[in-house]
Amino acid sequence: MEENRKIIKGNIAFTPRFGKLEVRENSFIVIEGKQVKGIYCELPAEYKNISVTDYQDALIIPGLVDLHFHAPQFANRGLGFDLELLPWLEGYTFPEEAKFINAAYAQEVYKKVVTELWKWGTTRVVLFGTIHKEATAKLMELLAQAGLGGYVGKVNMDRNSPDILIETTEQSLTATEDYIKDTVDRYQLVKPILTPRFVPTCTPELMAGIAKLAKKYNLPVQSHLSENAGEIAWVKELHPECQNYASVYHKFGLFGQQPTIMAHCVYNDDTEIELMAKSKVYVAHCPYSNNNLASGIAPVRKYIDNGIIVGLGTDVAGGHEVSMAKVMAMAVQVSKLKWLATDKKEKFFTIPEVFYMATKGGGSFFGKVGSFEDGYEFDALVIDDSCLEVSAYNRYSIEERLSRFLYIGDYKNIVARYIAGAKIEQPQF
Amino acid sequence: MEENRKIIKGNIAFTPRFGKLEVRENSFIVIEGKQVKGIYCELPAEYKNISVTDYQDALIIPGLVDLHFHAPQFANRGLGFDLELLPWLEGYTFPEEAKFINAAYAQEVYKKVVTELWKWGTTRVVLFGTIHKEATAKLMELLAQAGLGGYVGKVNMDRNSPDILIETTEQSLTATEDYIKDTVDRYQLVKPILTPRFVPTCTPELMAGIAKLAKKYNLPVQSHLSENAGEIAWVKELHPECQNYASVYHKFGLFGQQPTIMAHCVYNDDTEIELMAKSKVYVAHCPYSNNNLASGIAPVRKYIDNGIIVGLGTDVAGGHEVSMAKVMAMAVQVSKLKWLATDKKEKFFTIPEVFYMATKGGGSFFGKVGSFEDGYEFDALVIDDSCLEVSAYNRYSIEERLSRFLYIGDYKNIVARYIAGAKIEQPQF
Known about the structure:
CATH superfamily of the largest domain in chain A: Metal-dependent hydrolases
Number of strands of chain A: 17
Shape of chain A: globular
Number of helices of chain A: 13
Number of domains of chain A: 2
Strand content of chain A: 15-25%
Low-confidence stretches of chain A: none
Helix content of chain A: 25-40%
Strand order of the largest sheet of chain A: 3-2-1-4-15-16-17
Mean pLDDT of chain A: 97
CATH class of the largest domain in chain A: Alpha Beta
Structural class of chain A: alpha/beta
Oligomer: homodimer
Largest sheet of chain A: 7 strands, mixed
């Protein structure tokens, strides 16, 4: 039993509830196997024989969860931001994704993606791949090899897509089922996820088929919803029979019938919000991307007030930052602009609120992940923020140190990473 | 003559006009003394004897100009962003600035400020100090010692300020004149600037006295204008006799009678905009700060269209980033939200537009600075962006490489810095 236990010590901070930062200074976390077994100021007698990894004055926080990241767009970060969503897809995204038919290129890029996720402290991630099942299976393999947790989706698209990046409905469904069979039992922390790109690129037959696969293999679903006015108008044109964008997914079994993440959700109306809440659909809020593509500011406070679970996403490469810390800071920043734009009705977010979204909020998509409560899988980052100190004359609280790390720290401050109880070293690809 | 000349070679990019990126691949810049003497694809015969520093495939861009930075707030970066401007000043800013009566503390912090500016490639900067003339003179000394260019202001505040941070009108003016006399001829690239904090903390007598000093010593002026609704209402209350906020400064001789920078300008009305244009007042646009303090998005496109010169500022510590590259990216991002908020009337900014603001736009406050046209002082950064490459399979244009550096690069990409013709190494404090 004892070899299965570990104890680490430091200044522990996590959010058991939305907006509530729990701080336990100079305390011990006991981990048994994958799970947290308790936090103590003084170690109980039964644990006295177990050696303690003492991180001294460092912060220990839950690992960060990125609910939306397009792995094949990694090389496009920082490019093409003079465009909105639809022309950006045509001009930059699709040509880059088409390259992933080339397995060597895919492997080269995906190694860098996984290394970068590791570097910035993302411990669980939900990834889009491309339509190519081999490249996407390779991405899963690399993620698992690095010890990170994640869902990885082979993308489906059988209409309104360029010739270089389109499948027939049958090809798309067959390849997806092959991909699932090949990967579903292969790794412990990395699993496939159904990934219809978005309504405009998926025929009704394809959407219905994907929903069937999700049910058959009991797998989750991810897609995009209401990112941009042009996109919404296009969906309306394609599906005049549906009341709104969300109900298209719902009609075809892709809106909470299995656990579902919808990225963006910038422009959902009240009917959709009700459906999202009822269907327990997760929102992946991606503020960097929504700025870069001139999409707008999602009404996240409204979602939260309506009981919808919101996690955060980088949306690489609509977003250019891999760092979930920076995404948290940006989520606070745009919420302040939203607060002004709503005549101060939609209250802006605090650090403990966005921290919850990036840990326990998004983490709950993976089960008991994102918190240090008993029974949670132990995903953690150890933060040495001493180089952020300007003068020994200044003293900061743990809350303030967390805020400073999120706003002005970077990967160099992350000195250890744990996922599901195991310490994870830099991937050696 | 020849020892006074140097030649450097690389991929040169700069903005001779707003929005126009000029690219000269694999070219030579000839520098004579402080100044650019020409850019050539092939070196003319007369320069053949001068040795060339060949930066090979690197980018060579103008040094970056930060028009607004509160040096004493450096240790406050990333703190207190649950507050708006006025309570944030009370709760965080003023207590921190009060510490600068302590010369040792000031020196410790200011060394880090100057090092950080160097690190992120800021070659010219306009700094607020505190009310303390010794600490502020020390800041100038450190900046000059590092070889950076700048204006540094001893702050004036004689009303509505906490006891720990207030002067009498007479004290304020005497100390300011002492500070000017002490520093005005001391350094070549670093000069004093008159720095009334903002209308609420300066009596009419103080403002008038500062204007007199500016005229007497022929020095520029900096202050804050229309950052936040609460602040504007307060100014209205203090000066019911004035039509608007800008006209208060104008009435007391602090609005373009000498070269003037006004930070923020989030809420100026058309009358003020006319006055700003007529008075040739510079706007220091500080998007990070305006997000963090929930101030809003400045109508920068409108300013530009009205012929107002706009530079960019970090506004540390309202802004948490020292990097002007990140400020450029953020200026683009918030301009997209402004574009949406104005029904697509105020066009969002492109990279060449914000790049101009952060180089030649802000640089013009210093004279012929911020461009590589003949006769401009040679301020430059050499950017090795090779580590940003994901795969040799991808080829980027110089424009795209610049965009990627601004969005996803950092200080590690800056491999050499030049200011006024001299290569500047890391400060050894």
